[in-house]
Design brief:
By secondary structure, the protein is an alpha/beta fold. The protein has 12 helices and 9 strands.
């Protein structure tokens, strides 16, 4: 039933969905005190606000963008792939992908929770095969809808377990791309504590381990929402060079921070980035 409803909503223009999403964002913010508190706490603690007077304006924009991120999903998932990918109006850094592809070792694509991260595999898999790391949601109907919307001819899903990691390695050995959300909290044993906007966050180590084993380059990518439902701007970037004293996890978080600071209103601050996963020791107090 949910999948059918999303297919109906997908026929609406993207601009209409974004307008409805603005309302949806406020409804979610008002309806869930825990959601609203986490969004405010993470945003305020990040230090991205210029000053205290800037905070209410940025908070408002974050609430609106969060609603738009949800409302655009039916169109991104259930329009034809050509239509979904066609909403990418501008691309920068594609030469990075072409250079990485020419090396024949595969590509590790890291996409943080910013903008419309769901449109990236739609665009990318029209050009190269990609296997995306995927954590099934607890709600079965949502899982069915997600899989139906994400499965494309050159796109495969790999679950967040041992078999999924093998699937990622297999794709890299074939010179294909793999993708993952690097700011998604991993399970016990799959991460380490590293600062993210000044607070310890349990951070995935999978990307750096895959890069070491395969020698595949890591590429950062994100798709920012354009005004008035005009589509998306897709950006590809190389990882910045690491500092000598930082761990791989801190290097990753620092690279993500640089991206988020450019467009903080489109980052998913409501995500529980700082939780302690089951079976993981809490971070040591500084």
């Amino acid at each position: 039933m949910l999948t059918g409803l999303l297919r109906v909503l997908s026929k609406l223009p993207l601009a209409w969905l974004h307008r409805a999403g603005s309302l949806l964002g406020w409804l979610a913010y008002r309806a869930s005190p825990s959601y609203a508190k986490r969004l405010r706490t993470n945003l305020r603690g990040s230090g991205v606000c210029r000053d205290e007077a800037h905070f209410p304006q940025l908070l408002r924009n974050c609430v609106l963008e969060a609603g738009r991120a949800t409302a655009e999903l039916p169109a991104v998932w259930f329009r034809s792939q050509q239509e979904s990918a066609g909403w990418v109006r501008k691309v920068s850094g594609w030469e990075i992908i072409e250079k990485a592809q020419s090396q024949g070792r595969g590509i590790i694509i890291l996409t943080p929770h910013i903008g419309c991260f769901e449109v990236i595999p739609q665009y990318f898999s029209l050009r190269f095969p990609v296997t995306a790391l995927y954590r099934p949601p607890h709600f079965a109907a949502l899982d069915t809808a997600m899989r139906a919307g994400r499965m494309r001819p050159q796109m495969r899903l790999a679950t967040t377990d041992v078999s999924g990691v093998r699937q990622l390695l297999k794709a890299l050995k074939k010179g294909e791309a793999v993708g993952m959300l690097p700011d998604q909290v991993p399970g016990a044993g799959d991460g380490e504590w590293a600062d993210f906007f000044g607070r310890p966050a349990y951070t995935m180590t999978l990307a750096s381990r895959l890069a070491q084993r395969s020698r595949a380059p890591i590429v950062l990518t994100y798709a920012l929402r354009l005004p008035q439902g005009a589509g998306f701007e897709l950006c590809f970037e190389n990882m910045p060079p690491p500092d000598k004293a930082e761990t791989a996890a801190r290097h990753l978080n620092r690279a993500l921070e640089e991206i988020v600071r450019r467009c903080p209103e489109q980052y998913m601050w409501s995500y529980n980035r700082y939780k302690t996963p089951a079976g993981v020791e809490p971070p040591r107090a500084k």
